[in-house]
Amino acid sequence: MSARAIPELESAVSVDEFQALEEKVYKTIELLKSAREARAIAERDVTRLREQLEDREEEVETLREQMVGLRRDREDVRGRVEKMLKQLDTMGAEAS
Which residues of 30-68 are buried (b: 16+ CB within 10 A; e: fewer)? Predict the structure, then answer.
């Protein structure tokens, strides 16, 4: 660039235009900061939700195992009650 081109360039960009550009740059910087902060919050939320999901999955598995055990116990009790009822029927038939 020649020495004459610099004054022409300086006059081509007015103070108002430069200030408008500067304002846009600062707004962009603020938007970027806000977006980064929102992303950090979202990542923390995702981490927290994943941990909660893992906890719930463990709880579900524990409850499922308990349910299976309780069903097994119920069937055992049912069998024992049926056996006692048969014995009572047998005793009733013998007494008649």
Answer: eeeeeeeeeeeeeeeeeeeeeeeeeeeeeeeeeeeeeee
Q: What angle do CA 78, 69, 86 make, to 5 degrees?
A: 10
Q: What is the mean pLDDT of each run of 10 residues along the chain (96 residues)?
A: 55 83 97 98 98 98 98 97 93 79
Give the global pTM: 0.56
Joined together, the tokens standing for residue 91 give 């005793």
Phi and psi at residue 37, to the nearest 5°: -65, -45
